[in-house]
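During the no-cost extension, the postdoctoral fellow (Dr. R.K.) reprocessed legacy sequence entries with the updated structure-token encoder. One reprocessed record is reproduced below for audit purposes.
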Amino acid sequence: MKKVNISYERTNFFSKVVLDYLNEAKELKSFYNLPPALSSFPETIEKIKLRHNNRESVSETLLKQHTRLFAEKNLGAVRASIELLRDKNTFTVTTAHQPNLFLGPLYVIYKTISTIVLAKKLNENFPNYRFVPVFWLGSEDHDKNELNHIQLFGKTFTWNTAQQGAFGRMSTSSLRPWVNEIKLKLGESDAAKELAEALDDCYVKERNIGAATRKFLYHFFAEDGLVVVDGDDRELKKHFAPIVEKEITEGFSFKTVSESNERFSIHYDTQISPREINLFYLNDEVRERIVKEEDGYKVLNTSLSFSKEEMISLIHSAPEKFSPNVILRPVYQETILPDVAVIGGGAEVTYWLQLKSLFDELQQPFPLVFLRNSALWIDAVSAARIEKIHITEEQLFNDADAIVNQYVESQTGESISLEDEMQRITAAFNDAIERALKIEPTLKGAFESEKVRVIKMLEGFEDRLLKAAKRKDETSVQQIKNLKEKLFPSNSLQERHDNFMSIYSRLGKNFIEELKLHLDPLEKSFVVLSEEVS
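Re-encoded structure tokens follow.
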């Protein structure tokens, strides 16, 4: 496996706010406490250590969440991680994501491995403490159209279920046809058969998407001690109830985040905007916004309404009925977990920075915020093609036309560019103009016009030469365009499009192990991984 690190700036796929954050720009200093670096952990650990006092309860709740799985699977490392959470010297490194069908795009795998790798490095560097990797499963998300499909082997697999409400609660009973179709596509390799069995075990046997996603993650990462936490839990939400009450009665997050956004927007585009109440009402069929009315509260798109007293009573008698939106979900997570670090993509990093003032308002410690690893995985066939056209991994991030032009020029044996000729002609005209000015200044305009005409004519010839060279090697030109589309589907990053199973079905666990070996969120660079060319 060949690894090449490329600066995030060079890829042209990352926002200004993310690049400035990694470069510790002064404009962002007030939106976080410490930069995402190994040296920032000792101070962060001490702050988190003072805050968390619900360890026993959280550990017991997580053990209960896993009761059936522990009876069914050998999850010794997971159980050990949960037990460690009781100890005041244990901390968590957490990534969060919705339960995308079949784990969704590749970046879900990358962010999970980034979390596992960072936790491992912390265990090595700070032996007096223990660090547990956590995947916070956002099972309450109800954006079905974002979560119900994957891209695999050039085809979109979409689960068109009529179910509504939290995606994690949706029944898997109608998923079997999609699972069977995917299994046929995976092939007959040992890794493909392993995947087929895992799909049946998780998405056919499990009762809902949340449970299926948790089990699917454990199929690949249980041995790493990863703990999958489902926030859709009554016992966990009891700890969050005081903040829910504060939000319902004061609407505190709207004012705090709005003021933060005002400062943030001076230099950057904001990622999230608060509502007056940043909570949903949740049951098996509904996840709808709670809004304030003159005489109480209403749940949008339902007949449900509550007085202030009824709402406060419900918060404490049925905390599971309240679901935070993107503004309060990180607060909920940090109320439950002793996070020293959170890991997310560019959008997540941005909204965590926007929320720092909210944590200050609640006097909650703010964790270190790390950008997850981003990667481009190049299969052996594509790697061979890249070798043949003699381009670097960095040049892959150029547009397709630029790559084609470079290849064509290399194949012609001499540059198609007429730049040297244009420079000589320009110099000749400039000399002539200088001499003409001494004799008849009014001729300058005529000379300049003729110079422009000749240069444009040469540019036209250059374009015709390039097109002729492309026609001469049309097959290779098309192969290059196909390569670019394969590695950057629809001009986007591969990790945002392709599902991991297309690679795993060929390489099996070696795919995961290579990622663990080469991804490191402390490196702060984009990673290109190329399979060996046989």
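DSSP finds 24 helices and 15 strands in the chain. The first helix runs from residue 8 to 11. The remaining legacy entries will be reprocessed before the final report is submitted.
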